[in-house]
Design a protein that fits this description.
Layout (H helix, E strand, L loop, with lengths): L2 H8 L8 H9 L4 H8 L6 H6 L6 H13 L3 E5 L7 E5 L1 H4 L2 H12 L12 H11 L2 H4 L5 E5 L4 E7 L2 E6 L6 E4 L2 H9 L4 H4 L6 E3 L2 H8 L7
Helix pairs in contact: 7-8, 8-10
Length: about 220
């Protein structure tokens, strides 16, 4: 057996040969899939991972990282000098869970009871945009956008109707700055892009008409 299969066999919860049960043996622990979510756009140090999941204790995060590493979904590595710090990132099987997260985002948006006022991490917002974009309309627009969340920043681009985003300097035709929840209001809320320029807890920069076309691509009710 492969190392991943061996790890799943040793800690099987469901004791079934069902493929869905096997997947849940690997991903079904509480917080496990959210740990993977936080690593989907690049490697992170332990404390930055915790910042993206404030309800998760350090001890439980340590346990989840260990189990995901044993399952072959997460790996630890030490950055070269001068940083020389330990970070976590996803393996290829870990990155391959994106369709699962995307499907959960789209399914969850259609269910009652979602509270957008609760904490939204920067990575969670970037991934929700990737999941909820109007791909047909996005094919007609070319734009680069940067997002500055303080401790984290991202840059993204519309590519053939997809929102392709990565961690990096917040730069582009449009630039957004604020917390995850504040910028979620800009992307998904009812106010127009121009109404956010120079006001409130967020900063937006760029052409107002282009900014409006961009935010109109994202809709939780779609």
């Amino acid at each position: 057996m492969t190392d991943m299969t061996t790890a799943a066999a040793q800690r099987s919860i469901y004791k079934e040969g069902c493929l869905a049960a096997h997947a849940l043996d690997l991903l079904g622990d509480r917080w496990a899939l959210l740990v993977i979510r936080e690593l989907m756009l690049g490697s992170k140090r332990f404390q930055l991972l915790r910042a993206g999941m404030p309800g998760l204790s350090a001890s439980v995060l340590t346990q989840r990282l260990a189990s995901l590493e044993a399952a072959g979904l997460v790996r630890r590595r030490t950055l070269p000098e001068p940083a020389a710090v330990q970070v976590y990132d996803l393996t290829e099987p870990g990155r391959a869970t994106w369709p699962v997260i995307e499907a959960l985002c789209r399914w969850g948006a259609a269910q009652p009871g979602h509270d957008p006022a609760r904490f939204i991490s920067p990575t969670a917002l970037m991934l929700s945009m990737r999941a909820m974009i109007d791909r047909r309309a996005a094919r007609e627009l070319r734009v680069r956008a940067g997002f500055d969340f303080g401790r984290e920043s991202f840059r993204g681009e519309l590519v053939k109707g997809r929102w392709e985003v990565e961690r990096g300097a917040a730069e582009g035709d449009l630039v957004f700055a604020g917390t995850g929840n504040a910028l979620a209001s800009v992307i998904y809320g009812p106010r127009r892009f121009a109404d956010w320029q120079g006001t409130g807890p967020v900063r937006v920069a760029g052409d107002a008409a282009l900014g409006q076309r961009f935010v109109d691509l994202f809709d939780l009710g779609r």
